[in-house]
Amino acid sequence: MSTRPMLNKAVPAAYKTTIALSEQAEKAALDAGVEPLAIELVRIRASQINGCGFCLDMHTRDARKLGVSDQKLDVLAAWTEAGDLFTAREQAALALTEALTVLGDHGVPEDVYAVAADAFTQRELGQVIAMAVTINAWNRINAAVQTPPPRR
What we know:
Blueprint: H1 7-10, H2 12-32, H3 36-50, H4 53-65, H5 70-75, H6 88-101, H7 110-119, H8 122-145
Helix pairs in contact: 2-8, 3-4, 3-6, 3-8, 6-7, 6-8
């Protein structure tokens, strides 16, 4: 058994704040017009990069409920090689998510940002960024406390 503290028990206010941030970011993204599937793809891709099994389990199940194909989920880690399997907006969101998840020395490359800015309105773009930021927060929380995916 792990001796690492669970955030909800050790610092419940921070846990509740993180949940509220996630819920608000998702609601705002949907209200802005970001497709639900794109939101889940952002969550899944960041979780793949960060190796968060708990989040991968949760968000691949959520994506399947939205009707995403197994093929899309199967090749998501190599989406740049998948041709037009992913829409232009999904590709822009995924590229931006990758850049935000693995920040280089100079942040998000201008070309990645420009493609995303062309694919989304400013409001939508802000919400895609918020979704990537919030899932990265959860990935890091789960990595710190080693939250395993639930057994079903």
